[in-house]
Amino acid sequence: MIQNPFDYVRATTLSEALAALAEFRREAKLLAGGHSLLPMMKLGLAEPSVVVDIRHLRDLDYIDDAADHVAVGALTAHRTVETSPLVQTSVPLLAHVAAHVGDEQVRARGTVGGAIAHGDGASDLCAAALALRATVVVEGPPGRRQIAIDDFFVGYLETALGPDEMIVELRVPKVPGAAWSFQKYRRRHLDWAIVGCAAVRDPDRGLGVGLVNMGSRPTRAVEVETADRRGADITEASDLVAAGCEPPSDLHASAEYRVELARVLVNRALDACRVA
Amino acid sequence: MRAASTTTTTSTSTSSAGAATVAPTEPVTGGLGDSPLRPDGALKVQGRFAFSSDDRVDAMLHGATLRSPHAAARIVRIDIAPALAITGVRAVLTASDVPGTLTYGLIDDDQPVLADGVVRYQGEPVALVAADHPETARRALGSIVVEWEPLPVVADPDDVIAGTARELHPRGNVFRRQDVACGDQELVGEVRVEGTYEIGMQDQAFLGLEAALGIPDPDGAGVELFVATQWLHEDRKQLSACLGLAPERVRLTLSGVGGAFGGREDLSLQVHTALLALHTRRPVRMQYTREESFFGHVHRHPATIWMRHHADRDGTLRRVEARMVFDGGAYASTSHAVLFNAITHAQGPYRCLNATVEGWAVRTNNPPCGAMRGFGVVQACFAHESQMDRLAEACGLDPVEVRLRNAMVTGDRLITGQVVDSVAPVERCIRETVALPMPPDGPGGDAADPRLLPGGVGLTTDAAHVRRGVGFGVSIKNLMYSEGFDDYSTARCRLADGVATLKFATAEVGQGFVTLAQQIARTRLGVSDVVLEPIDTSIDSSGSTSASRQTWMSGGAVDAACRAVRSRLLDAVAQRHSIEVEALEIVGTDVVSADGSLRVPVTEASAGLVIDESAHYRHRPTVEPDAQGQGDSHVAFAFVAHRAVVDVDPELGLVRVVQIATAQDVGVALNPLSVRGQIEGGIAQGLGLAVMEEIVVRDGIIRNPSFTDYLLPTALDAPEVVVSLVEEYEPLAARGQGSRRAAVHIGNTGDRCRDPQRDRAPDRPYAGATPGHLRMTTGPRLHLWEVVVDCAEPAVLAAFYAGLCGCEPHRFDDEWYWIEPASRGGGVADAGGPRIAFQRVPEPKVGKVRLHLDLGTDDLEGAVRRAVSLGAGRLGDPVTDAAGSFVVLADPEGHEFCVVTE
Fold first, then answer.
1. What CATH number did the domain enclosing B897 receive?
2. Nearest of A86, A137, A83, A71 to residue A107 by alpha carbon
3. How far apart are CA A109 and CA A88, in angstroms?
4. Which residues contact B119 (CB under 8 A, 6 or more apart)?
5. Rounded Cα gap, residues B326 and B157, in angstroms
6. Which of B6, B179, B199 is nearest to B734 (CA)?
7. N or C terminus: which one in chain B shows less Cβ crowding within 10 Å?
8. What domain range is B467 assigned to?
9. Minimal CA–CA distance to B240: which of B221, B226, B262?
């Protein structure tokens, strides 16, 4: 049950949405697919006094071929990404990860922009965006700016988005020939990952490894990538996964167990990335 | 072979002598042995079945419950005034508003209707609100001011046993302390294995949330309650006491039940709904949320069980020692009986003459625990089966072999001294389970389908990382209520114009009794149409839908009522046609005479008649155990064997149960589809306990009261289930009524694949463990099970061969006797081999037997002398050949056999 009363504003254009954000600032929350916002409101983790509904901004529902990258509009559903031939051929890891978000109904409503803006450490998509070194395009009153994914997730459910800004696009570099792997550990079908790992090895960009649920925010396995660059073998590299991680302890796994899971998953992911 | 003779016996009881000469023209469809569709099946599949949460009436109010956030606290002050001030709030009630007894309970009434000054578990009801709208009611709960004084939380049963815990309740901290001791208490085996086993708290997790609708009588002196429950009359008994009303002023009707599994045996919102309705003089509806449901009903007891098994080097079980500690939580519920089931099943389905068992069920500030599918036997099973695996390892035996060597047979004694006089096909269950097909695919399943891998579509693992193991579990469970409880069931049958109408108070909780009742009436009365009246308290009690008892008990009552109606119908036909009633019976859908001269359809025979009969059904009496746990305290038993094929990623601890194969002692399957449904459901729930499900409680606080964090298996987590129904006639249930027992599934045998270092269910994932103890797969095996001798007098022949071999004959019934080797519990002095059975057949012996018995001996002449003295005829002199010497004899019925030197 959502405990707190709130006002509802429906934006029909991007400027209306931005105007609402400018007016209500931190009092407002954007409603896209609602799959992160509504549980947060039910749990009392978010108590917006205004909900700005942006589901009708169909202009932001697109996947474009932009030379060296794929541009995904913020309101594009996971299901659209999963089934896009362009994504499947240019960034197969992204299509694959999108296919592992929730179930089909969830994927049909949940949006790429929403998942990135939520910045959940347990998000598969955020881990993939880290591995792929994506760029987040945001828009606010001063106009558009680009934020590198490494600068975007700043804390627990906290991002570099200003209170009057919203995500409009995610730019994902094309890596058509890269080797990649996605590992998602869970005890029951359709659950969130207890630990996950997205890895991609591109001839030009080297190795990228993003981790799921290994910290309060989406986490890059920096030490693993560094060790790989200096030529360490897979076991040596994956043994370094704990560095820089602060995995949570909860009912389903202790922090120590998560580290062990991450070590095995990264090892397997790197093994899969070895053979392109 | 035995099953074949069983079929003969049972078909005799359903259609007796006349059937041989008069064939039915119109067979009954949907009768006993068929699997007709459930009357509620289509509605449920189509989403049109009304569950209790669907019950609504005009102008009803909505009730809500204020619960304690503390596991232990004193209530210093409650201020309900702010809630009463809210517009739309019609009543706010606390303990002082309870008009009758302030407490209730199934065995011991120690649980307050509303907390009276103190709370003993998190979620204990403190106050009730009725309001015009459910949101108003919830808001009102939030405005009630309670001043709490938290008390030290007693969360560890060991503190209670050690006597270091504070007194939690005026009635003490120990629900039950009971030993079971038999035989030699000092015996020390050649081989000893021991372990300590933990079982977690499991939720019944029924999908139909607790809901009730209470409607007060216009004069306010009574109330009608529509509720999903397992036992209407017991609810009424407790309810009327708390309401201070005569039982007849409290009327209950069963609402649609969305699962129960023991969780609806105790009261939840019954008293609360009725109180609010009586207080406001308005209909009141209550429904729990999923979170509230975790606090609103009792759960499966967490238990810690230590066991030490003593055995000979060959694996023969000599003595079992056990100490069982069951955490009953804050209130008694059925802890008393759950503990008794556990301690009296400590040895499992095995012969064991010596036992020393110490049992404790204690009170803590944890959530109250009580009935859940398996009722204490599940906890014991996890421990004794883990022990049997250890014993097998210690003796260098195959896990199946050690179980076969100790398998209980009819005539064996339990550790309570009670003789298992019903069928005990433990060996058959094990052998049939082993013989069931293994999964077609190898470890990791079909590579093209990631759902078949541990971890599923997350693609965390692949076939290269997966290892496969096979585990076995065998179980015994008592059926029905034990310890001297006078249990009965009631049913009424009315036949008019070819339509039968049945009335009973048997709670249909999804198990399918409504289907079975119709089947019984169709077979007994030859009717097609069977109308079921509402299930309510306007008829006498049917007892609880629990303890695997309703098919037997209420089935027995419906059967008796239908037989009484049939008898009166036949009387009427006999009178009308001037025929001896003994010559009449119902064959198919007709009343026919033995000589075939009369054939009247039942519809016609019953035209213009209204025949109405009621019946009670009771099982045989049981006794309360003595201080050593000895006595015939159980009614009957059922047995089951499981084989689990499990794929594991040892590096991650990921588990997928690929297949469960099971052979179950089901009596006779009255509705095979229904029996299989129960077996599959039980397996899903057992799998949950083994690998996923646990209510995590820390310092009395439930950490995961939601289906997000309480992991319930999904359809994708469910294994393939291969079932073999072991159908052996149950003489006990046949007594008097001729009713046959169908299986109601034996709880969960906790099939599992575990790390030997982690004796715990559910088994949490772990890293780095190597399941080295897992057996690799074996193919199907056939073996010589028994040799059956056709004869005219099985009793005489069995006595002859038993005398010859120096053992006691076993009797199944007049038609079937057997003797068997010592290794299988009989007295035939050899190390193995099949048993020899004797069955009565009508045809005589013709010519020389084409298959004969050779009885080995080291004293040929002595053996021949004994055979002759027992009635054998000597057919020749000793013959000596390359293999040894032998003498040909004829047994008392002329069957040729030999005694031979080995």
1. 3.10.180.10
2. A83
3. 20
4. B68, B70, B71, B72, B73, B75, B126
5. 8
6. B6
7. C
8. 300-481+626-773
9. B221
CATH of domain A7-53: 3.30.43.10
pLDDT at B730: 56
Disruptive mutation site among A3, A96, A189 for chain B (greatest number of B CBs within 10 Å): A189
Average pLDDT over residues B215-230: 97
Residue B153 CA, chain-centre distance (Å), reads 34
Q: For tokens 């080291």, what's the residue? A: B858
> What CATH number is given to the structural domain containing B18?
3.30.365.10
- Chain B residues whose C-beta is within 8 A of a chain A C-beta are 135, 138, 451, 455-461, 465, 651-652, 654, 691-692, 696, 703-704, 709, 711-714, 716-717, 765-768
How much is the ipTM here?
0.83
Please report, for residues A78, B374, B424, B538, B619, the alpha-carbon distance to residue B481 in angstroms, rounded to integers and kept in the order given.
55, 13, 19, 24, 10
Q: Does domain A59-173 have CATH number 3.30.465.10?
A: yes
Could you read off the pLDDT of B461-498 as tens digits, one per residue?
Answer: 778 889 999 999 999 999 999 999 989 999 999 999 99
- Residue B45's pLDDT is 92
The dihedral region occupied by B769, where left means phi > 0, alpha psi between -120 and 50, and beta the remainder, is beta
Element (H, E) at A154: strand A153-155
Tell the CATH topology of A179-275.
Enolase-like; domain 1 (3.30.390)
For residue B632, CA distances in Å to B324, B415, B482, B484 come to 21, 11, 9, 9
Q: Where exactly are the structural domains of chain A?
A: 7-53, 59-173, 179-275
Query: Which pLDDT score, from 0 to 100, does residue B345 have?
Result: 97
The structure's pTM equals 0.82
3-state SS, residue B145? strand
Q: Distance between CA atoms of B136 and B805, rounded to whole angstroms? A: 81
Query: Six-digit token pair at B14?
Result: 């359903």
Question: Chain B neighbours among A 108-147 (CB < 8 Å)?
Answer: none
- The token pair at B483 is 């310890």
**With a CB-CB cutoff of 8 Å, which residues 69-108 of chain A face chain B?**
100
Tell me the pLDDT tens digit for each residue of A141-161.
Answer: 989 999 999 999 999 999 999
Residues B283/B215, Cβ–Cβ less than 8 Å: yes
Same domain, yes or no: B840 and B885: yes
- A90 to chain B nearest CA, in Å? 21
Q: Look up residue B842 and give its two tokens.
A: 């009508």
| Nearby residues of B875 by Cβ (< 8 Å), 6 or more positions away | B888, B889, B890, B896
Question: Which residues of A fall within a CB distance of 8 Å from B769?
Answer: none
Helices B335-344 and B377-395: angle between axes, nearest 10 degrees: 20
Q: What is the pLDDT confidence band of residue B14, given thresholds at 50, 70 and 90?
A: very low
Cβ pair B551, B737 in contact under 8 A:
no
Peptide bond into B762 cis (omega under 30): yes
Q: What is the dihedral of CA B598, B604, B610, B614, to 10 degrees?
A: 60
Distances (CA, A) of B497 to B177, B529, B602, B614, B703: 57, 10, 8, 18, 59
Residue entry with tokens 């001037």:
B578
| CA B341 – CA B357 distance, rounded (Å) | 12
User: Do the chains contact at B458 and A1, CB–CB below 8 Å?
Assistant: no
Let me know if A176 is exposed, middle or buried by CB neighbors in 10 A (0-12, 13-18, 19+): exposed
Closest partner residue to B652 (CB to CB) among A1, A182, A261 is A261
pLDDT beyond 80 at B785: no
Q: What is the pLDDT of residues B654-709, one digit of tens each?
A: 888 999 999 999 988 999 999 999 999 999 999 999 989 999 999 999 999 999 89
How far B713 CA sits from the closest chain A CA (Å)?
7
Report phi then psi at B313, rounded to 5.
-65, -25
